[in-house]
Design brief:
Elements (H helix, E strand, L loop, with lengths): L6 H28 L4 H9 L18 H14 L1 H20 L2 H12 L5 E4 L15 E5 L2 E12 L6 E7 L9 E7 L5 E6 L10 E12 L3 E2 L5 H37 L1 E2 L2 E2 L4 H29 L6 H26 L10 H11 L6 H21 L1
Parallel strand pairs: 1-4
Antiparallel strand pairs: 2-3, 3-7, 4-5, 5-8, 6-7, 9-10
Bound molecules: acetoacetyl-coenzyme A.
Acetoacetyl-coenzyme A binds next to helix 4, strand 3, helix 6 and helix 10.
Length: 387
Amino acid sequence: MDYFLTEEQIALRDLVRKIADEKVRPIAAQLDREGTFSWELVKIFADAGFYGVIIPEEYGGMGQGVMELTIMSEELAKACAGVTLCVAASALGIFPVIISANDEQKSRYLPDYAEGKYIAAFCLTEPEAGSDAGSISTRAVRDGDEYVLNGTKIFITNGGVAKVYTVIAMTDPSKGSRGASAFIVQDDFPGFKLGKEEDKMGIRASTTREIVFDDCRVPVKNLIGREGEGFKVAMRTLDKSRPGVAAQALGIAQGALDLAIDYARQRVQFGQPIASLQGIQFMLADMATQVEAARTLVYAAARFIDSDAKNVGKISAMCKLYASDVAMKVTTDAVQIFGGYGYMRDYPIEKLMRDAKITQIYEGTNQIQRMVIARSLIREAAAKRAG
Ligand code: CAA
């Protein structure tokens, strides 16, 4: 089924699938075991043009959108969800520049990104500000032509491997989230430091790191938008990037389903392949139906966002919520189909269950997604009543 993809999208999907099958899948278990970030894969992805896909044409990219990011994330995640993040979480890091930066900033940062000369990361979360992103305390104080940043960001995907970080910091703490501003920070700016590297349950082929700003000096020309717009820049960014997480979850779920079907066809118990047992068939049927429903929602959300529609937060949150819950359910059921073998590291399935878990947590927990959806429903109902 081609899901009404355009010819270009099918070509992109087939290219990413080929590279994922040939280059990522064979080393996925090793990268997971050793917790290694692969620069070799970044080079392969850069040469294949993956980083340019979402960059506007006038800055050297292909001018594609969230749908194409979705296609790449899904295909890569079928092979390894951790590896996916050197493309998908990098997109999260560069989205604030694409969405909200001025022409001069775009000209400085986007052409090199499109060529895959560097990858990016997004710095919002802090030790005391996770779900409550508006309560960040990293400070940015203007000093002449520079801002001086102080504070610590945690759980930063691509931390330590990214060269460019989009950072949300408070320029006026008295205004709450209206006092936050967004900055483009390079890893070679004075006072930029790497903190603790996390040892994670899953997505172990990606880096997750603390980033410390210790009197970090950032040129004023690297402020994105105006002072006070940082929280909105962050929220608009997440609206665009959450379908990428949803697609990552979708890829994990599809990957687990494929493995479960193959295993059920081969595994013989009671004198027959377990695939011929109705109990297993019903599980596979439910898993496949959930995966298809997730794909339909994720693609619909991506297309809606790319149509430049307003108020895309609700559908973005819905697809992330649904696809990540499906990924958790489907990978858990896949492990069940593998039985005792599924629990062992010798088989590839337990990795998918570990990788799936984070998709319910990062880029906003699924509780936060429900909050975003519910608030939007209530706002829409109030507007209808008023109008
Ligand atoms: N687009 C534009 N503006 C938005 C917006 C959106 N989607 N959502 C909110 N805003 C605006 C509001 O209109 C409001 O503006 P005004 O002040 O002008 O009225 C302002 O932002 C504050 O909005 P709220 O009152 O709704 O803010 P809140 O404090 O109640 O929080 C929240 C909202 C949705 C819970 C938000 O804090 C949130 O999304 N939290 C989760 C954070 C998150 O996703 N973190 C993940 C970090 S990225 C990651 O995981 C890293 C990684 O490496 C993978």
